Structure formats: structure tokens, C-alpha cells
Amino acid sequence: MKYTPAEKMQMEAIYNPKGMAYFEFGDLIALSNSTSGVYIKREEVRIDLTKILLVEGEKKEIINPQRLWKNSVMAEKEATGKEDTKYWIITGEDGRKAYVRDHIMKLFGNGARCRIEGYTKPVLIVKNRNIPIGYVFTFVRIEDLKDRKIAEEWSNSRSSYFFAEPGGEQKEGGV
Prior knowledge:
The protein is α+β, with helices and mostly antiparallel strands. The protein contains 4 helices and 9 strands.
């Protein structure tokens, strides 16, 4: 589904502008923690970190990440000495999901490997430190090979990550 500017404004009015996310299947995306210096078409994607689903077998429950951080994360680490490797799901307001395999702490630290529902390979890695709840990620839509090269350089210069299209070879940028 493609959103018109009016529809996006409506979403902003309905949903918490610092929380919810919208993104579109089929887009090639690059991630940055800044909107400056972007010369190709970009799409702001807001991921709601306040609604994270924990998947453990068939059991699913909504978990507040602050409570999760204090109780589940620390308890797991203190009990086992290891980081949790359950799947986490970050939901967008239109029902689409980003699946996070790594420990949720990595979302706030060195990065979380994610895949958007329907994609066959990871298309997103969050690699920013001290990400607050409601953080606004900026994604860049890659529309041709020239833009892809620009995006790769842009990603590299900002310690972010760029991936190729779903099902294709993935490329990594950043440090």
C-alpha cells in the first residue's frame, strides 16, 4: 500500500507521532540517525518501541520495554549469564511487523537484526546507541542503481547499515 501525503498526515493526527511506524513492502531502505545530507527520496519510518510482542512457542504477549528491560532482560542475564535469543516483533500501525532475533538490549545498543514480514532475508539492522523509546528512524528508498550507490556511501558515512533488496544479496555499510 502506498500512502499519500494526506494519508500520512492523517496517521500523524491519529497515531502518536513519536511512536508508530509506517513502511512499505518492496522498498530498498537505508538507515540513519539523522535526516541531514540525504539527497535521495526518503521515507520516515517510526517504529513503536512501546508495543513489542514476545514470541515464545505459541505464546504471545505485549510487553512494555521498560518493564522488559528491568525484569526479563536483567533476570535472564543474571540467571544464565547469557543474552536472550528469543524472537521479538516490532509492530507498525498498519499491522506490519519487524522481527528481531537478537536480544532486545541490542536494539538499544550495537544493533538488532530484523526482517520485515514477507521478506526472505534481513533488510534492516538498527545500529545506533542509546536509542530512546519513540526514536524516529529515517529510511531511504533506493530507486535505481545510482541511488543505491549514493545510499551505500551515505550509509557508510553515518555508521549505519544498507541492505540490498529482499531476496537479493545483502550489503553492509558502517562500522
